[in-house]
Amino acid sequence: MLNLETFKEYWDKAFPDVRLRRSHFVLAVSGGVDSIVLAHLMHTVKAKCTIAHVNFQLRCEESIRDEQFVRDFAGQYDMPIKVHACETAKYAETYKMGIQQAAREIRYAWFGALMQEITLAEHEIPSTTEQSNLAPNPKPVVLLTAHHANDNVETVLMQLFRGTGIHGLTGIPARRTDVLNMARPLLNFSKDEIKAYAAENNLSYVEDSSNEKDDYTRNLIRNTLLPKVAEVYPMVSENIIATTERLKEAEQIVVDTVNTFWKKGFKFKKGIPSIPIPYWNKVKGNATYTWGLVKQYGFKPQQIEEVHKILDANKGAYIASSTHRLINWEDQIQIVSNFSEKVYLTIDKTILEPNLASSHPDTVSHTIQTIYGTLQFERIKNSSALAIDKDPKYAYLDADKIEWPLLLRTWEPTDYFYPLGMPKKKKLNQFLGSLKLSPSIKSKVTVLCSGDRISWVVGNRIDDRFKIKPNTEIILKIQLQEPK
Description:
alpha+beta, 22 strands, 5-stranded antiparallel β-sheet, 35% helix, 3 domains
């Protein structure tokens, strides 16, 4: 039964993070019984609300009637109202989509903009002299929609018929904070309970004539399929809702298990997130495990089969999403962002100025953090006893040939340098190709530039023009420490 007491009880259980008297609510009100009942309940609990009505201009005079009805309702209960009129049919035609999808995109985009507008207004500092020293006390803005238990049942069936994983069978979430800060306070109540509340409180509302037609899939399920099923299973709606609750619990168990599996398998080879193929093969072909990993990288459920094929593909093969690539490389599946970060960092000579208070002023060091590792700079005196580390992670440069400031940046296809030991210049792209680096590691290579010349291809080879000689007095020693 829906009444003020059960409404508050469900609210406290479902939305412990949302305070009824300490938030500003945007109420999506169409004028139908569901949204009118929600608006009445929110008015009764004295919550701060703004009514938001979208006129989709799809039902001619009926759309005009609905808008006026909502305006009159807002006026009757002294609630502020915002109305947005849009050409839904034209939008759907322009962007090649169905009317229902177009309406959904339009209304939620406007709701988001309205919430932002209210948020900015809530943060506005009082301008009066008396209040000028007071800090603003903004209220969080929350969107409320009037989805109810019957909507939930219809959604679960639609997801089932389309083909879905376990998440699609858990129904409409009561609370969301991912895209919009929103809640659905009537989700625990049936359509009959909502109508009974409206009758008891003498609430009038408008009927959408399109709800009686089976032109849309949801209407077909509501008007035809469910009544037929109810003839065999009278408790069909209640049973489906109960099943969604059990599935939510099962889903959490699955999510925890899958996340634990991938967490144990993750490696960071040269700073690149990777999954060893032998480890992935432990769950090869299991769509649940694969989806648990790739969904966070922009992949679609329809790509799962192709993702599995990458495990057996040739070196360098990859599959891409809108944000990432999965690359088969040296018995690993590398996870690489399509928007790799660029490095551009100037390094001033002052980092190597001697510390007069130091007991060893001739040896000066400084460490710089970059997104691809740590560089340690040392200024040291040359001597016959100096031990040169041959590891390419070290660079020994003639300090007198250095032009400051140095520039550390991501390499470019037009770069060239003189590799140590070679009298002729070489395109950097060709040099890196000869090292047979994976595409993802190659994209992370940086160069240290002195003036307009490359002095060091960081972590790989110094430029021959900057090498130390017997007559070199001061050496700039640099060590690269890559992230583990």
